[in-house]
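Tokens as discussed.
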């Protein structure tokens, strides 16, 4: 086994496995503090799920993402906190949290509903009326307000104590009103997973947002897609402050001796899979924890039984989401107003969520003049999809077809205007950490020193979606600095 030739002796103070947004966030924070580190990435370039795809003259995000704020504005998120801390510029645009209802009985029309930050928990009253056409009773409204008050008062520590309770079980035990039970039981499209599979601690932390700041706010960086707005400036900062980037290397194992991390062994994909060894007293695993354990990058023997079970449970929610790309010959869908929509189709008996519609303009995509890029995001964690990681293409194509059919009802001519279309399956983002687990997976395995876990696969009770990996980066950096100084 060849020794890595990038540095001699003790190679680095810290090694980061994975060069997605989580790995880059930690790397930049360490580089700012003068820590000598390296990011080892299996792909030829950094970025992870924030990379771009080229599609018939378009350049867009490889999968549809959105950023969520539980703090009332984009500027209060940890993504902004990171960029400010590093002295990097970041701009944003706010987007309404929008639902769209279609039916064949209203051709060429889509009914919109957007969460209003001024309404708080009363958004649920409005959403119920929008989806059913019926106003909620005063008793049901009172029950919704009671639940919102409970979750508003729950601290992060209290939320973490109930990660072993499913949201569905909590509703069964604590909610008597059948209408409210139905509303909460139908939150899968908003959560991104069936309510029986997600823990109450995560849901409580999210529901409390409505009373605290009115609603969860949706935003997106600008200008450019995520690769330009987030990855490029972080990668530039990391390299300029002494960080090393080692690409096309698949980490085979994290070395652990006497319960301490000592480095990694990586496989060089550019050199006939030759093995290289890099030494370090700190290793930060910024790839999904269930993937690291499944591939034996982190050996299960170093995990407590409750941690191993929690990681297994998270792995069960690790499934693919489907993104569709549609380049239209002409502009069919209005660009102004709503660029990102939760689409519900009323023709399935009840309003059925079929996926999100996202305009290329929302994600700052590059599109040929006169054309229009429309994207879909269909979660694979719902009962109607449930793609898994090895889903049959028949199920994928059926979800793709249902989405196109729903969009055609609202925007006649959409299907005929499609010049090119493509699909992309990609690991879902954050939702695997929502699992009902015996203990929340945190930043450090209890039995190993010098090993830290980053990215979005840990801590179900945290900030949401794409902001989560930036949230976790800060305390990891603090712990690494303390460990190295000791």
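Sequence:
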């Amino acid at each position: 086994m060849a020794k890595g030739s990038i540095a001699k002796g003790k190679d680095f103070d810290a090694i980061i496995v994975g060069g997605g947004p989580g790995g880059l966030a930690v790397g930049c924070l360490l580089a700012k503090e003068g820590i000598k580190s390296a990011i080892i990435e299996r792909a030829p370039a950094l970025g992870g799920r924030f990379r771009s795809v080229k599609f018939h003259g378009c350049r867009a995000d490889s999968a549809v993402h959105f950023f969520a704020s539980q703090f009332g504005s984009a500027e209060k998120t940890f993504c902004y906190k990171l960029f400010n801390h590093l002295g990097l510029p970041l701009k944003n645009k706010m987007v309404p949290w929008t639902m769209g209802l279609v039916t064949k009985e209203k051709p060429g029309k889509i009914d919109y509903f957007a969460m209003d930050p001024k309404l708080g928990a009363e958004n649920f009253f409005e959403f119920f009326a929008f989806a059913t056409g019926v106003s909620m009773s005063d008793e049901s409204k009172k029950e919704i307000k009671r639940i919102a008050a409970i979750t508003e008062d729950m601290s992060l520590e209290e939320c973490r104590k109930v990660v072993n309770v499913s949201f569905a079980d909590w509703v069964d035990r604590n909610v008597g009103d059948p209408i409210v039970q139905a509303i909460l039981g139908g939150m899968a499209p908003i959560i991104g997973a069936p309510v029986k599979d997600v823990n109450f601690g995560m849901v409580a932390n999210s529901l409390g947002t409505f009373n605290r700041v009115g609603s969860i706010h949706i935003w997106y960086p600008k200008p450019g897609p995520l690769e330009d707005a987030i990855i490029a400036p972080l990668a530039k900062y990391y390299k300029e402050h002494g960080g090393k980037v080692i690409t096309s290397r698949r980490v085979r194992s994290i070395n652990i001796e006497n319960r301490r991390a000592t480095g990694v062994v990586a496989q060089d994909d550019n050199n006939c899979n030759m093995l290289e060894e890099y030494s370090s007293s700190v290793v930060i695993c910024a790839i999904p924890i269930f993937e690291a354990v499944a591939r034996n990058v982190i050996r299960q023997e170093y995990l407590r039984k409750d941690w191993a079970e929690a990681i297994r449970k998270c792995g069960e929610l690790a499934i693919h989401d489907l993104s569709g790309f549609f380049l239209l010959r002409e502009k069919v869908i209005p660009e102004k107003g709503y660029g990102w929509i939760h689409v519900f189709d009323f023709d399935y008996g009840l309003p059925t969520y079929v996926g999100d519609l996202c305009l290329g303009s929302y994600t700052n995509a590059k599109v040929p003049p006169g054309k229009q890029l429309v994207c879909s995001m269909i979660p694979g964690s719902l009962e109607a999809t449930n793609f898994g990681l090895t889903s049959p293409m028949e199920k994928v194509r059926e979800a793709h077809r249902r989405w196109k059919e729903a969009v055609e009802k609202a925007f006649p001519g959409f299907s005929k205007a499609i010049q090119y279309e493509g699909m992309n399956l990609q690991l879902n983002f954050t939702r695997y950490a929502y699992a009902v687990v015996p203990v929340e997976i945190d930043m450090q395995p209890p039995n190993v020193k010098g090993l830290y876990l980053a990215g979005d696969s840990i801590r179900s009770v945290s900030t949401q979606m794409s902001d989560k990996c930036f949230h976790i980066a800060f305390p990891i950096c603090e712990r690494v600095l303390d460990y190295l100084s000791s």
